Amino acid sequence: MRFVITTILSVAVLAVFISLGSWQMQRLYWKLGVLAEIDASILAAPVALPVSPDPVADRFLPVIVAGEIGEGELHVLVSSRDYGAGFRIIAPFTVDGRRVMVDRGFVRAVNKDAARTTGPVQITGNLHWPDERDGYTPENEPDKNYWYAREVDVLAAALNAEPVLIIARSDTDPGVTPLPVTSQGIPNDHFEYAMTWFLLAVTWIVMTAFALWRMKRATR
């Protein structure tokens, strides 16, 4: 009887592990589809800047705008895998009489206060409302021009601009490296989760087989 009960319980636990792994694989395929849709949206043909951009409906919307980069840029601390530590340059941008913002891209820390070109320019990029602040993010230091997250409302208030941020894909200054919007920063860990559950299932099979073998041997 003990042998039978152990077998039934072991099979039940194994079924849970396998079902959880299968569910994560389903989530993986769903997430890949979502990321493909996001990539298609990001790389679609650019359009004019909407009159009233919506943070949800217009997230990642490709735009092309001709306007003027103004003075008074903000520096947002960032660490890039390809370029190391530095700052994103957020500048005011006037287009069709509206004052919005443009994320011009990355500069190294040593070039934080270097002079950059302003004035008329055409920019191709994507609208974005990043969600970068969490419980570990330091408080901004406006007096030092150190900002630690691209909080669109906060940056817009500092620049007296609309809460609209264009992430440039095109160059706006020889010394600034564009960091365009991509889907790479969107977490997709479902494959790792699935492999964890499947590995637990394999481990459970080995452990159960060993336990049943010992129980059967002890009854001889």
Describe this structure in words.
The protein is α+β, with helices and mostly antiparallel strands and 220 residues long. The protein contains 3 helices and 6 strands. A 5-stranded mixed beta barrel has the order 1-3-4-6-5. Strand 2 and strand 3 form a beta hairpin. Helix 1 packs antiparallel against helix 3.
Q: What are the salient characteristics of this protein?
A:
220 residues, alpha+beta, five-stranded mixed β-barrel, 6 strands
Short description:
The protein is α+β, with helices and mostly antiparallel strands and 220 residues long.
Instruction: Give the SSE string.
Output: HEEEEEHEH
Q: Tell me the β content.
A: 15-25%
Oligomer: single chain
Q: Largest beta sheet: what is the strand line-up? A: 1-3-4-6-5
How many helices in DSSP terms?
Answer: 3
Tell me the Rg in angstroms: 26 Å
| Low-pLDDT residue intervals, each spanning 5 or more residues | none
Distance between the termini: 15 Å
Shape: elongated
Report the strand count.
6
Mean pLDDT reading: 87
Largest sheet: 5 strands, mixed, barrel
Please give the share of residues in helix.
Answer: 25-40%
Structural class per helix/strand content? alpha+beta
